[in-house]
Specification:
The complex is a heterodimer of chains A (210) and B (76). The longest helix of chain A has 25 residues. In chain A, a hairpin with a 5-residue loop joins strand 3 and strand 4. In chain A, helix 1 packs antiparallel against helix 8 and helix 3 packs antiparallel against helix 8. Chain A is mainly alpha-helical and 210 residues long. A two-stranded antiparallel sheet of chain A has the order 1-2. Chain B is mostly helical and 76 residues long. Helix content of chain B is 78%, strand content 0%. Chain B is elongated, with a radius of gyration of 17 Å. Classes of the chains: A mainly alpha (210), B mainly alpha (76). Chains A and B meet through helix 3 and helix 8 of A and helix 2 and helix 3 of B.
Chain lengths: 210, 76
């Protein structure tokens, strides 16, 4: 079991000694935190922070999915070491939340063209079809968009882009959550020289000097 | 459909910007809380840090919005 040390005076009520947080199985906690935000913290017994991370990170992700009608998370190719995968850099960020990455990756492994999605998932997180598609504009005229991503962007503008950004940011935030589950909070404590300066400036120190 | 260009008056652009800016509110709250929670372990310091962080983000956004408006005014 790992331990994380909080500096003296950190806890409430303040103490003169450092506070140690026991981090149970950091590797497993980090993996659980990747799978679902906050789950790693719950595994370690840090229920308050686990709930906070779940609500904030997963809530941000769900809100982005809601804005984008559930189509903002998809992968371009099953080959993670390829230029095409990096061109869909948004998915690389969204994959920070594991539960989001898994269905999208399964869909693209099954059929990268998006024409034949998995029966169990349907069109959920399926890759967009890469052929021209008809669309009715606001005036009722039928037009053609070059592919399904363009159709989604026109249909749901500007929410499709906003939803994409929400899910991207949620994935990136979960990287911080994973680090916190693995190593504890990054608390900047007082150094020895700071404590000496505080003692020198304190009224008690001034009285002692006089 | 509103045709937006450099001559579009501020009275049209600003309300549109404010409407779109509402999308930033949940994001600022979420990012502030997560960043603060990765720096502290107890709830009280987390909330204090989150409020300071959110205010800093809003001031930063406000300053840059004013700078961009000034640049647009000077360019027109």
């Amino acid at each position: 079991m790992a331990k994380s040390t909080l500096p003296p005076g950190y806890s409430a009520p303040a103490t003169d000694d450092a506070v140690e947080i026991e981090l149970r199985s950091p590797g497993i906690a980090a993996a659980l935190a990747w799978l679902l935000p906050g789950l790693g913290h719950v595994y370690q017994g840090r229920f308050g922070k686990g709930l906070l991370f779940f609500v904030c990170v997963f809530g941000t992700f769900l809100y982005g999915m809601l804005l984008g009608n559930g189509r903002v998370v998809y992968a371009a190719t099953p080959d993670v070491v390829s230029r095409e995968f990096l061109q869909r850099w948004q998915f690389a960020c969204q994959a920070g939340i594991g539960v989001a990455a898994i269905p999208a990756y399964l869909q693209v492994v099954h059929d990268p063209s998006g024409e034949d999605p998995l029966p169990l998932l349907g069109s959920f997180m399926a890759p967009p079809r890469k052929r021209p598609l008809p669309i009715e504009d606001d005036s009722g005229n039928m037009t053609t968009q070059p592919d399904e991503v363009a159709k989604w962007t026109v249909d749901w503008h500007p929410n499709f882009e906003v939803g994409t950004m929400y899910t991207v940011i949620a994935g990136l935030l979960n990287l911080l959550v994973i680090c916190d589950a693995y190593a504890g909070p990054l608390v900047i404590g007082h150094t020895a020289s700071d404590e000496e300066d505080e003692d020198a400036d304190s009224p008690a120190s001034s009285r002692r000097q006089s | 459909m509103i045709d937006l260009n450099l001559d579009t008056p501020l009275t049209v652009l600003l309300p549109l910007a404010i409407v779109n800016l509402w999308h930033a509110v949940p994001l600022i709250v979420s990012v502030s809380l997560v960043c603060a929670a990765t720096r502290h372990e107890l709830m009280t310091p987390i909330l204090h840090h989150a409020v300071r962080f959110a205010v800093w983000v809003l001031v930063f956004m406000g300053v840059f919005m004013c700078l961009l408006q000034l640049m647009q005014y000077l360019a027109s």
